[in-house]
Design brief:
Layout: H1 2-19, E1 23-34, E2 40-55, E3 58-71, E4 78-90, E5 96-107, E6 115-125, E7 129-143, E8 148-164
Length: 165
């Protein structure tokens, strides 16, 4: 199932890269919070999205990327590939926006299940890109073999996306 979702994400973004209308690509760095703060020291990732302008100030599209959480103490590194729908609202007369990505986070580590993905953002819009701060959250299940627990992987991120047209 993970392979099928991963293939679907790359197929979606592959078509978006070819068209390049409304495509944005960037990266983020962040501090893990919630349960992830016990297992990780910081996170680093890439972002990609293809957006369509629906009406003045409102864009909708698809988003994906990769977020890598660097393990600390006795924990290994782990990561997630989100497959999400994305929305963004730009306020009239001001260069600021709010956004939200919702979907599924595919885990790249055995023993860590994927889960519901949410990524609200607040940012500053520029002509060639956007600077944002956001809270990335993946609600998932961790399987240690002898014990299974639900937990939430979260991170407060700062990022920048370039517009590629």
């Amino acid at each position: 199932m993970k392979k099928l979702l991963l293939l679907g994400a790359f197929a979606l973004l592959g078509g978006a890269v070819q068209a390049q209308e409304g495509f944005k690509l960037g990266g983020h760095i962040g501090i893990p919070v919630a349960d992830a703060s016990d297992a990780s020291s910081f996170t680093l990732g890439i972002d990609a999205a293809y957006m369509w302008n629906i009406t003045k100030g409102l864009d909708l599209g698809v988003a994906s990327g990769y977020s890598h959480f660097f393990g600390e103490d006795n924990f290994d590194d782990f990561g997630f590939i989100p497959v999400a729908v994305s929305g963004k609202y730009r306020f009239s007369g001001a260069p600021i926006f709010v956004g939200l990505d919702l979907g599924y986070g595919i885990s790249t580590k055995d023993g860590v299940d994927g889960g519901f993905y949410a990524y609200p953002k607040f940012g500053y819009q520029m002509s060639k890109g956007e600077l944002y701060i956001g809270y990335q959250s993946i609600s998932n299940k961790r399987d240690w073999g002898w014990y299974t627990a639900n937990w939430s992987v979260g991170a407060v991120n700062i990022g920048y996306n370039f517009f590629l047209k």
